[in-house]
Amino acid sequence: MNHIQGKLIHEGKAKRIFTCENPERVLIEFKNDATAFNAKKRSEIEGKGRLNCKISAALFELLESNRISTHFLGLHSETFMIADKINVIPLEVVIRNIATGSLCRETPIRQGTILNPPLLDLYYKDDKLGDPILTEGRLKLLDLISTSQIKEIEGITRNVNKILKEYFDSLDLLLVDF
C-alpha cells in the first residue's frame, strides 16, 4: 500500500512525524541529525536516519514476535516507517541495567554497577524543563497516568528489557539502558 506523505505534525530531535492519506496512521521520518545534551550540541551524520529506521524496524518486529504490541506497521522507504497514530503522553520511561550517566552524576552509585533488578525511572518529557525525574507524588500531582497505568508501564518495560537484553546478549552487545 502506498502512503502519501502529508503535513508535518511534529518534529523532534531525531524524527519528523507526518500525516498520510489514512487518518489513523502516520509516516515517521528518521533524520540524520545527531544531538547531545538536550540538543545543545548538534551535528548531521550522513546515513544515520536510514540506519536508525532499519534498526528500529528490526526491534519493533522482535517485540511484536514476542507479543509486545507496538505502533509499528511496516517500512515505507529507507528512512520512513508507517505507524498507527497515537496520543503521546509526555512521559519518558528509562530502564537501566548498568549504572552510568546521570544516575552516577546524581547519586553516589559507581559507574558500571550492575543494577539487579534493573532500575526504572520516569521523567517528564520536556526539553525546556530538562526532562525532570518524576516521583510518585509528582505523577499524582500532574495526573498524567493512573496508578494502574504506572504498574502496566513498569510490567511492559521490564518485559521489553528482558527481551532486548537476551537479544543483545546473543549479538555480544551490552544493553546498558534505554
Overview of the structural elements:
With 178 residues, the protein is α+β, with helices and mostly antiparallel strands. The protein has 4 helices and 9 strands, in the order βββββαβββαβαα. The strands form 3 sheets. The protein has a 5-stranded antiparallel β-sheet with strand order 1-2-3-7-6. The chain has a two-stranded antiparallel ribbon with strand order 4-5. It is globular, with a radius of gyration of 17 Å.
Order of helices and strands: EEEEEHEEEHEHH
The chain-level mean pLDDT equals 94
How would a textbook summarize the main sheet?
5 strands, antiparallel
Q: What percentage of residues falls in helices of 4 or more residues?
A: 25-40%
Strand order of the largest sheet: 1-2-3-7-6
**Coarse morphology:** globular
Strand content: 25-35%
Give me the Rg, rounded. 17 Å
Helix/strand/pairing category: alpha+beta
Query: Count the helices. How many?
Result: 4
Instruction: Tell me the total number of β-strands.
Output: 9
Distance between the termini: 32 Å
Indicate the low-confidence ranges by residue numbers.
Answer: none
Oligomer: single chain
